[in-house]
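go over my protein:
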Amino acid sequence: MALNTWLAFLAATIIISVTPGAGAVNTMATAIRSGLVRTLPSIMGLQVALILFLIIVAAGLGAILAASETLFTLIKWTGAFYLIFLGIMKWREASNELSVESQTHISHRKSFASAILVNLTNPKAIVFQAAFLPQFIDPALMLWPQYLIMGITMVTVDSLVMIGYASFALKLMPILNKYGKLQNRLFGSMFIACGGLLAGSERL
């Protein structure tokens, strides 16, 4: 992959990663509930989903999803219901004063698996990558090294961005402490909004 192509891909990846979505909401909510260190498994889960997307696109399956209305709709509604479910659970979560001492130590495995589901149940992400990634592929060169470079770039950038979102959420803790249940309802509403947007989305 030529340097100028990689730099263009890097810039596009940064813009996409910084744009808030369900992954960012999940990361911030997990950080506030469990702290920065225990948010890392959740961030790793998001990256596993990104890698799976890349493999799907590289294998040509992204085109199948883009062409199949039934498969797209099934995954879309599964993702929408899952995000809305997370939002409802967040709304119902007990209100506690937020501090380092009061943070809940949730299971790493549960946090990891939940983050994977948050990303994997968004079919638009796969369809988007199916349309996005080939723009930076040189067919005259071997494909797998190019996909490898793009995969490493995406995972690195998105991990750093998610750590930034988690750190930002933790800085909000003193403000959220003043409003009791506000933080639960804020993140619950954000999950529900993401689910609603996904449910109302159409294929690219």
